[in-house]
TrEMBL record:
One example of a Gene Ontology biological process annotation: methylamine metabolic process
The protein's name in its UniProt record: DoxX family membrane protein
Domain Methylamine utilisation protein MauE, first and last residues per copy: 2-80
Annotated transmembrane regions: 6-25, 37-60, 66-87, 99-117
Places the protein is found: Membrane
InterPro entries: Methylamine_util_MauE
Chief localization: membrane
Entry keyword set: Membrane, Transmembrane, Transmembrane helix
GO cellular component, one term: membrane
Topology of this chain in the membrane: Multi-pass membrane protein
A Pfam family assignment: MauE
Length: 119
């Protein structure tokens, strides 16, 4: 299990760091995911900063537990947006089918964050 957890930490660390950087490089990509009643640019940059910090944290042994917990919390915060996206006429993710598939996929990602946190 140790090798699996290390592999998951590396994969998710890189993924989250990359996603965080993309929030700053291409912020318009994320606009459709942010509800209109929120300040889009501010929310985008905060999410990007959090994702970048989580990604880096997952790659550092001393901060893995805190980063995994933050990953779990952030994904729980974003979960209602994924549900909301399913019911939109034109989902931000692209298609209705992908939006529907993404919801149960979030449970797998939450479980992975939990596994990293507990090991």
């Amino acid at each position: 299990m140790g090798t699996l957890i290390i592999t998951l930490r590396i994969i998710f660390g890189i993924f989250f760091a990359f996603a965080g950087i993309m929030h700053f490089i291409k912020p318009k990509i994320f606009n459709r995911f942010i509800p209109n009643f929120l300040p889009k640019l501010v929310v985008n940059y905060i999410a990007g900063l959090l994702e970048l910090a989580i990604g880096i944290g997952l790659l550092i042994n001393q901060t893995t537990k805190h980063a995994a917990l933050a990953m779990l919390i952030l994904m729980l915060i974003f979960f209602p947006i994924h549900i909301w996206d399913v019911f939109r006429e034109k989902p931000a993710i692209g298609s209705k089918k992908i939006a529907i598939i993404r919801v149960p996929l979030q449970f797998l990602l939450l479980y992975i964050a939990y596994l990293i946190y507990t090991h």
